[in-house]
């Protein structure tokens, strides 16, 4: 590992500005890292070195001429699902292995306009419908902290690449936890913004459960990236106006924060709970009043209703477009969804009704009682194999409890139903097997600044040492 491999974007900008590091030279360091990790972690869907080198040389000129932009010269990881014009975009599927993106996703435009250098395309599961990252096209992506264990999904390649030192920033997307799951398992920060905060692609305007968002190794970098990505784009008519987030935050003196360790889930692992409680103590040390509230949701029902809603909006129609002749090319988990699409039709209405019910409970127990934020774990366990197949093994046993294998170990889906809530995923430390754990920081609708304020204080409290003095052994 080069001494500069794990520099943050903020540190890079400082060094570029001072002239002590050149963007083109730094890119070569990361290209070597990207090549090296592929033999172990396997998180690259593609590496686009030539165009990145050209952009890095241009960034160097801009720095020397005093024309640098907000992310000038900072290399960025792009989730394969996130379209970059001219890059392959097969959605990890052999069925679409020859597809190429015709235009940039709006957030890619924003990154390029800010001077960032997309160069590394990160793996995701086929059609982004799994909480792990493996497919027939790309194989299994491992977790840099423990290669045999899951890096999460569907933005698992982005999380793994951040942890492997491939770049300091990454894009992700989240329709059932796909930013927050890999953020937790890879030990990085991730943000699921409220719907409308970031521009979506045309035709995705009604897909409110799913949003794009930033991922980064450090809190300060997450703020930096979110401020670049947020706000209107010419191709999107649903994006809200955006006031940039502060880059400096005061303490939490007097802020009331509610928590429920696992939303009533019976299988919360002791090491996940230990790290969560330590993080909460860190927030108390920053002045917050942190109190447990009784939130016990039917998580199995939430998962089913969310998935049915996703099927109604997107999945069933998409699966029915795949010819029968191509069915054998699909991964087991996609074939399973395709089979479901042939069954009885599903509706989006239960999602809307359940979201309203969940919000009313949050209003009664959290927001209406004066709490500014709510915290829970992201996952109940880290004991998840990298190649776990929920079709071959429908149930898992976690901490002595039977758990449904597809989403039963996640505490994320409720906040995709509550899709106007901002949710920030923050690392809390390492589990007993050396895989990171994480927590979700939640605020009421469109109150982005509160989750960032809480996360800033969590970072300053230092209860997690990941990427400070603890680094993945696989790298």
TrEMBL record:
InterPro entries: Amidase, Amidase_CS, Amidase_dom, AS_sf. GO terms for molecular function: catalytic activity. SUPFAM superfamilies: Amidase signature (AS) enzymes. Residues 26-451 form the Amidase domain. It comes from the Bacteria. Belongs to the amidase family. PANTHER family: GLUTAMYL-TRNA(GLN) AMIDOTRANSFERASE SUBUNIT A, MITOCHONDRIAL, TRANSAMIDASE. This is Amidase family protein. It comes from Paucibacter sediminis.
């Amino acid at each position: 590992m080069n001494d500069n491999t794990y520099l943050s974007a903020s540190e890079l900008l400082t060094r570029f500005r001072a002239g002590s590091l050149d963007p083109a030279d730094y890119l070569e360091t990361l290209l070597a890292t990207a090549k090296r990790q592929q033999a172990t972690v396997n998180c690259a869907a593609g590496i686009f070195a030539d165009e990145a080198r050209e952009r890095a040389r241009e960034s160097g000129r801009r720095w020397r001429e005093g024309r640098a932009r907000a992310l000038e010269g900072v290399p960025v990881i792009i989730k394969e699902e996130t379209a970059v014009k001219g890059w392959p975009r097969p959605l990890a599927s052999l069925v679409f292995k020859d597809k190429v993106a015709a235009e940039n996703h709006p957030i890619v435009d924003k990154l390029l306009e800010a001077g960032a250098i997309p160069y590394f395309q990160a793996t995701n599961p086929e059609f982004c419908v799994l909480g792990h990252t493996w497919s027939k096209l790309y194989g299994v992506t491992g977790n840099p902290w423990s290669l045999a264990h899951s890096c999460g999904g569907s933005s698992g390649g982005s999380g793994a690449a951040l942890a492997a030192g491939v770049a300091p920033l990454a894009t992700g997307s989240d329709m059932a936890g796909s930013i927050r799951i890999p953020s937790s398992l890879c030990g990085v920060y991730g943000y699921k913004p409220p719907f409308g905060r970031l521009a979506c692609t045309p035709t995705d305007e009604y897909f409110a459960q799913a949003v794009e968002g930033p991922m980064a190794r450090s809190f300060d970098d997450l703020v930096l990236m979110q401020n670049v990505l947020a706000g209107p784009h010419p191709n999107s008519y649903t994006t809200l106006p955006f006031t940039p987030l502060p880059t400096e935050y005061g303490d939490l003196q007097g802020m009331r924060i509610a928590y429920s360790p696992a939303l009533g889930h019976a299988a919360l692992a002791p090491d996940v709970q230990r790290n969560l409680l330590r993080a909460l103590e860190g927030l108390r040390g920053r002045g917050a009043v942190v109190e447990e509230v009784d939130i016990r949701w039917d998580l199995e029902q939430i998962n089913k209703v969310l998935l049915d809603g996703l099927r109604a909006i997107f999945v069933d129609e998409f699966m029915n477009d795949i010819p029968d002749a191509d069915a054998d090319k699909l991964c087991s988990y996609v074939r399973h969804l395709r089979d479901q699409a042939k069954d009885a039709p599903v509706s989006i209405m239960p999602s809307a009704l359940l979201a309203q019910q969940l919000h009313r409970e949050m209003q009664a127990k959290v927001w209406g009682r004066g709490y500014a934020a709510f915290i829970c774990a992201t996952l109940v366990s880290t004991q998840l194999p990298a190649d776990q197949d929920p079709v071959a093994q429908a149930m898992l046993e976690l901490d002595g409890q039977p758990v449904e294998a597809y989403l039963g170990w996640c505490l994320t889906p409720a906040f995709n139903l509550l899709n106007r809530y901002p949710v920030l995923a923050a690392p809390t430390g390492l589990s007993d097997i050396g895989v990171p754990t994480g927590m979700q920081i939640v605020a009421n609708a469109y109150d982005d600044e509160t989750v960032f304020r809480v996360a800033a204080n969590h970072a300053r409290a230092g209860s997690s040492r990941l990427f400070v003095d603890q680094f993945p052994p696989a790298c």
